[in-house]
Amino acid sequence: MRSGLKPVHVIGGGLAGAEAAWQIARAGVPVVLHEMRPQRRTEAHATDRLAELVCSNSFRSDDRETNAVGLLHAELRRCGSLILRAADAHRVPAGSALAVDREGFAQSVTDALVRDPLVEIVREEIAGLPPAEWDNVIVATGPLTSAALAEAVRTLTGEDALAFFDAIAPIVYRETIDFQKAWFQSRYDKAGPGGGDGADYVNCPLDRAQYEAFVAALLAGDKTEFKEWEASTPYFEGCLPIEVMAGRGVDTLRFGPMKPVGLTDPRTGHRPHAVVQLRQDNALGTLFNIVGFQTKLKHAEQKRIFRSIPGLEGAEFARLGGVHRNTFLNSPRLLDASLRLKAEPRLRFAGQITGVEGYVESAAMGLLCGRFAAADRLGSAASAPPPTTAFGALLAHVTGGADAKSFQPMNCNFGLFPPLVEAVPTKKKLRGDERRRQMSARALADLDAWLGVRDAAAD
Ligand SMILES: Cc1cc2nc3c(=O)[nH]c(=O)nc-3n(C[C@H](O)[C@H](O)[C@H](O)COP(=O)(O)OP(=O)(O)OC[C@H]3O[C@@H](n4cnc5c(N)ncnc54)[C@H](O)[C@@H]3O)c2cc1C
To answer: Residue 146 has what DSSP assignment?
Structure first.
């Protein structure tokens, strides 16, 4: 143990904060973990345990070969994650998913941190920016960050840089769009101030009958309701679900996100009755989001209804849409590559507040952030994981790969990974599970190399 080091302060003892504290202590650096529960509760947490799971008890797929979240599990295990260790120890039967006994899981995370001599746990709300003498801080306060801290971060980062609701439009893998029906064109072929070639959007045309059937399906579709405390949060007029817009009149969408003006279907030479537009979502160009299609439709309904759009019949979704109460930063704009706030580098951010979505992704950002903060304290360089790993792909997305203008929370999926480079180029493109297997194998090999390099550097 290295004594005499100033502690790193971690605010929030959820999935990300607990993992970050654990990683910092593993590096021999003292850490103070500030958790406001039980003094102050959130709308979703029910206990005073660290790493409480607020909803489902599932960490999703544990298939590391063909599922990007399963791969992230494997990477977390290889990096000595406390969250994955506790999840494995409290696993309950759930087929190919990793599901846990939630109480046993959270209790074992809590016990491990309470017992760790390098970790001090303080039960208090940090109700503003941390004191100036805290020179190395991780903010991991999650989707339900307390109002006082959220307001302080909003003042520091700017009005539009911290959101209180996500408005997630479904994201489609580009390779699953049917370009026999869809075409690339920007409205009025305008290049726009940010560059572009006048053909930046993918457009899917609907005739009158298709449009009216689509609006009817949106209205009839099975939806998830807003929770009472979400509905009373005064921010969601700005991100209305598409079915709510559809309910305001049959033509509302045709004058809103589905307006056809300035667009010509090259197959007919005419302007369609309505158009669904998709916009590039990542720098790699592998993912496209359906513009303005944030929704509270249930996931199965989204797949059924959105696949009725011409050109999207075979669409595979990297993520489905949603609207939730969520506190998150515009990370591509605000954070540097080691998750530091550019405007105030003593502050790092981890977990859902960085714009990742889900328990596993939040824990992964906590792990990386903890390692970066510990490296800073020890005066060593923090190296980022390669972008070919699940860790690196997610980190690169939130810190710059995503488009800052339309940034919304993202889960881990293979669309975030750089394409495979074949050793011997072949005409036949690798698809489906075979492509995913190769991406996973590449990720784990690159992660091992990174860990080897890191460990050697730390010796
Ligand atoms: C209602 C709801 C349901 C969800 N369901 C799922 C699901 O089923 N599956 C899934 O994968 N993800 C789900 N999520 C997303 C989930 O919250 C995150 O994936 C995960 O918990 C985020 O981890 P985190 O560490 O960033 O935040 P959290 O786990 O929420 O941890 C943040 C911690 O910070 C504390 N805190 C907040 N403000 C302060 C402060 N000012 N001072 C001190 N402490 C503070 C909180 O008490 C909390 O313990 C859900 C989110 C919500 C809001």
So the answer is: -
42 C-beta closer than 6 A to ligand 1? yes
Ligand 1 atom 12 nearest Cα:
358
CA of 301 from ligand 1 middle (Å) equals 26
Asked if residues 388 and 443 have their Cβ atoms less than 8 Å apart, the reply is yes
Q: Is the peptide bond before 257 cis (omega within 30 degrees of 0)?
A: no
Question: Could you give the CA distance from residue 414 to residue 394 in angstroms, rounded to a whole number?
Answer: 10
Q: Which amino acid is at 297?
A: L
Alpha helix (H) ranges present in 298-402? 299-306, 331-334, 359-378, 390-396
Q: 60, 110, 123, 141: which to mutate for ligand 1, most atoms within 8 A of CB?
A: 141
Rounded CA gap, 9 and 27, in Å?
Answer: 15
Extract the tokens encoding 22.
């654990």
What does the CA dihedral 257, 258, 264, 270 come to, rounded to 10 degrees? -150
Query: Which residues are 432's β-sheet partners?
Result: none
- pTM for the whole thing? 0.90
- Distance (Å, rounded) from C-alpha 297 to C-alpha 306? 11
Tell the residue nearest (CA) to atom 19 of ligand 1: 358
C-alpha of residue 89 to centroid of ligand 1, in Å = 22
Please give the order of strands across the beta sheet that includes 287-290.
Answer: 183-184, 202-206, 274-280, 287-290, 171-173, 317-319
- Cβ atoms within 10 Å of 455's Cβ, excluding its own: 9
Using alpha carbons, select from 275, 293, 287 the residue that is nearest to residue 169.
Answer: 293
Cβ(161) – ligand 1 distance below 6 Å: no
Rounded CA gap, 23 and 4, in Å?
Answer: 18
Ligand 1 within 6 A of 123 CB?
no
Could you read off the pLDDT tens digit of each residue along the chain, which spans 459 residues? 455 899 999 999 999 999 999 999 999 999 999 999 999 999 999 999 999 999 999 999 999 999 999 999 999 999 999 999 999 999 999 889 999 999 999 999 999 999 999 999 999 999 999 999 999 999 999 999 999 999 999 999 987 899 888 888 999 999 999 999 999 999 999 876 666 778 889 999 999 999 999 999 999 999 998 887 777 666 566 678 999 999 999 999 999 999 999 999 999 999 999 999 999 988 899 999 999 999 999 999 999 999 999 999 999 999 999 988 899 999 999 999 999 999 999 999 999 999 999 999 999 999 999 999 999 999 998 899 999 999 999 999 999 988 888 899 999 999 999 999 866 666 666 778 999 999 999 999 999 999 996 655 444
Structure tokens at 315: 């669409």
**Contact 53 CB / ligand 1 (< 6 Å):** no
